[in-house]
Design goal:
Length: about 210
């Protein structure tokens, strides 16, 4: 086999992998995490055997699909931990994490779903949640976060944020910013009414 042919085969394999990962992201976002592997193959324009050759399990595919988002989430939390004011750091983290979720509903669902402990994505999620717990603990010790707020309250906010429906990604992100501000005011141990981000017109019909 010539070197040129080997290079082409490797390039084709990379292209197939990239198409599968992109198709998986779109499928998880539109149809949920239970979307069949066959549907991912159809969207990617490859055979089902090709998908399984690259990703033997659904968990492996989901890990690859959201690797960049998970890294971005961990960077947000790491940066928040360096903020001198613990409450400000927590606010920044929650605002940015919810924004990441707003831009990728598949990732948002994966962050709040249950997976086997051997699943790589679960390991990354657990690291992120431990960092979030550290931020919350610091914010409570500094008097910024209400002492009765628990991690599940933040996860609940993530789940609620995933329910936002808007006519464009830009509007969904704007609605998320306002929602995050409302949540943070309710989490504050010293609630002071602050100006909220602008309200967003959502696809609702109000009868007169």
């Amino acid at each position: 086999m010539t070197e040129q042919l080997v290079g082409k085969l490797r390039s084709d394999a990379r292209d197939n992998r990239d198409r599968i990962v992109e198709a998986a992201r779109e499928a998880f976002a539109s149809d949920g995490l239970d979307v069949p592997m066959r549907e991912v193959a159809r969207r990617a324009g490859v055979g089902l055997a090709t998908v399984y050759r690259r990703f033997p399990t659904k968990e492996a595919l989901l890990t690859a699909a959201f690797a960049e988002q998970m890294q971005a989430c961990e960077r947000v939390l790491d940066e928040a931990l360096t903020v001198p004011d613990p409450w400000a750091g927590l606010c920044r983290a929650i605002d940015k994490v919810l924004a990441l979720h707003a831009l990728d509903s598949g990732f948002a669902r994966a962050m709040t779903a249950q997976y086997p402990r051997v699943f790589d994505f679960a390991d990354g999620r657990d690291r992120s949640l431990r960092k979030l717990l550290g931020l919350m603990r610091r914010a409570k010790e500094s008097g910024g976060l209400r002492p009765d707020v628990v991690l599940e309250d933040v996860v609940l906010a993530m789940m609620a944020n995933d329910g936002i429906r808007a006519e464009s990604p830009e509007l969904r992100l704007a609605a998320t910013r306002r929602f995050a501000a409302l949540m943070l005011q309710s989490f504050s141990a010293r609630p002071v009414p602050l100006p909220l981000p602008p309200a967003v017109r959502l696809p609702l019909t109000v009868r007169a």
